[in-house]
Design a protein that fits this description.
Length: 59
């Protein structure tokens, strides 16, 4: 049972999340032989004002 945790700065659309989930599940199936239904994906959308690169916040 693969578990994938993905954090992104900002918000994603439903369509973007659907495509990300499809691609991660397909990759796990192609590369690792794991059936798509066994892959768990959690997308954590972090507000840009809470995300910094170095000492500079993104928002």
């Amino acid at each position: 049972m693969p578990y994938i945790s993905l954090r992104v700065a900002g918000r994603l659309t439903k369509e973007q999340k659907d495509e990300i989930a499809q691609r991660f599940a397909q990759t796990m199936e192609d590369v690792c032989g794991k059936p798509k239904p066994s892959t768990y994906l959690v997308i954590d959308e972090v507000p840009r004002e809470n995300w910094a690169k170095g000492d500079t916040f993104l928002a």
